[in-house]
Amino acid sequence: MSNQLIQIETPFQFSEENQQEFDRLIQRYPVKEAAMLPTLHLAQKQAGYISPAVMEHVAELLELPVMKVKDVVTFYPMFFEEPVGKYVIRVCYTLPCALRDCKLVLEHIKQKFDIDVASETDLAKGTTPDGKFTLLKSECLASCDVAPVVMVNDDLYKNLTPEKMDEILDGLE
Amino acid sequence: MVQERRILYEHLDVPDINTFDVFRQYDGYKRFEKAIKEYQPDDICDMVTKSGLKGRGGAGFSTGLKWSFVPRDIEPRYLCCNADESEPGTFSNRYVLERNPHLLIEGILICCYAMGISTAYVYIRGEFTLGKRMLDAAIEEAYQQGYLGENIQGSGFDLDIYSHPGAGAYICGEETGLIESLEGKRGQPRVKPPFPAVEGLFHKPTVVQNVETLCNLPFLMGQGVEWYTSIGRTYGDTRFDPPQSDPNTGTKLYCISGDVNEPGVYELDLGLTAEELIEVAGGVKGERVKAVIPGGSSAPILTHYELECRLDFTSLTLWKSMLGSGGIIVMNETRNIVDCLLNIMKFYAHESCGQCTPCRWGTPWVRDIVQRIADGEGRQTTMQRPKFGIAEGGRWGDTGEMEEVYEDLDLLESVANNIANVDTMTWNTICVFGIAVSWPAVSYLRKFRPEFEAAIREGKLVTLPVEEATVPPEENYAYQQRIVPRLFEAPT
Ligand SMILES: Cc1cc2nc3c(=O)[nH]c(=O)nc-3n(C[C@H](O)[C@H](O)[C@H](O)COP(=O)(O)O)c2cc1C
Ligand code: SF4
Ligand code: FES
Fold first, then answer.
1. Tell me, what's the ipTM?
2. B482 FRET partner, CA 20 to 30 A, in A114, B130, B340, B399?
3. Angle B313-B315-B320 from CA coordinates, rounded to 5°
4. If one looks up domain B337-461 in CATH, what number appears?
5. Does B204 touch chain A (CB under 8 A)?
């Protein structure tokens, strides 16, 4: 199965702009491998997720075996190996947010989109059928003073209630 | 009431302080200039040692001492600034990065000048996208203004600073995990020794320092050791005070969250009591305090009997807890401690890096046992056994009474103590994540045992009134130390 996947997938290439960014990044470190995380972030921003083709390209750029890249991708929760929604919603679920009713917010989103919370091994169950949203639980986002907090892609939203969450999500294209 | 003393955070709210020009108006980079003009690198190391500055990232290790371990004859040396801030309950570094990034750059400059370092990496957790953007912009500006790059301000000192994003793994906050992660590998901590100071990033001597620690340096430089050591509370009125020989100097960015009226970051002199801090943060939300976590979720919990403890590095150790990252989480009388422990254990079970068997397996076991208790399926035996506690003569021993045996509670303590033993402080794991798991597990259980027992007995979570839920401190400390300390006798 996986062999087939690699064959049918279109190869991945950095866009010109990202290639320049990568060339800048790689100069920062005495060994190429050290550019792994920033490169993967860059690739994920372009491709949406880290597909086998992306891993191959990154491995080539960093002059490493693909396995090493895969090893890293599987370790870090911020890298996705499957397609995710256009908007990734991370609801903080650690103690300080839990003391401030993050549960209400999470349950509300679940109901609103009729989805479950995605897990690292099953992103599809937390993704809306139209591929717009993916719902994830997150660990402490270092904003416990304004709990409960939610991150939607790169933006942090504070002091949330189900109503405020609605407003934010409805405002997204 | 205790007054805030804003030093690191003094200019945080000044509009546009994140730009070079405004930062410059508030003495920005002048302290670094003073350092390179008036001091030799060794003098600065001396100053840092004399100041008594302790690392603010978690371990509270003396910064001067750490610097003294770095061999000066191996080139290159590196600085890793730890901006991974992922300890639950901690959020002070974020504000520095987002609002006053030049302050961090100045701190890094002073540190690197003192240590003869010419490359520094700032490891920022992946979720801090705004913080990273602000820092990158500030670094760019500093290059343009000639405060970074080659031959800075004509001094012959070179420095490059690069920001490096993490990707959501808590363990990358551990210093060797951070180094592995920076090298582009899985963030799995290394066996120590060798310590990073001797062999760290790319196998070269490396200083790992928290954002807040580095931000102290410009002020220490600008106003001197005497001024710095004058900050910090005087001792001598609570039950466990640190020895005068190990003063806790400077201010701390206390992050307070949970059940208080005004959660936030408060910069206060090190060594105020938990009670005072809660008062500064607008008092407890609800009727009364049930429990306080004093140093991020890894720290052993404090009960309402223990609120007079000083929140500094040495006192909290005497109280068998730790200041850690300075994240204080307050829980009021409506909170169920079993439920809180479950939340925390889910966090740790998710974040174990998986290298060591006791941690990889033990942490999910602890979570599962707590889950079982919370679900009302905790296991109890029909047996009874002699109850140990404060026996005759005030010593730890057989009290002559009998107690119920709760299988799951014994199991919980045993599993947790086999990851890392909190009584002997020994662990079978590579990094101290192990103790960060067993500390909360065991302390919650011992200090709030009635609530755990009630959950098993009743088959559901039961929130007991504060007094009933809490084990009196005498018993607790007696258990930990196997003797009743004289400290608990009424002061005469
Ligand atoms: C599991 C674990 C997580 C840690 N997380 C952080 C963190 O997020 N930020 C931090 O500054 N230090 C963290 N530390 C502490 C670091 O290992 C290290 O002691 C610290 O960065 C040293 O800097 P300092 O001396 O300036 O405090 C963590 C330690 C452990 C064991
Ligand atoms: S103690 Fe846990 S987190 Fe630390 S190295 Fe071992 S498995 Fe990893
Ligand atoms: S617990 Fe949610 S931000 Fe810290």
1. 0.93
2. B340
3. 95
4. 1.20.1440.230
5. no
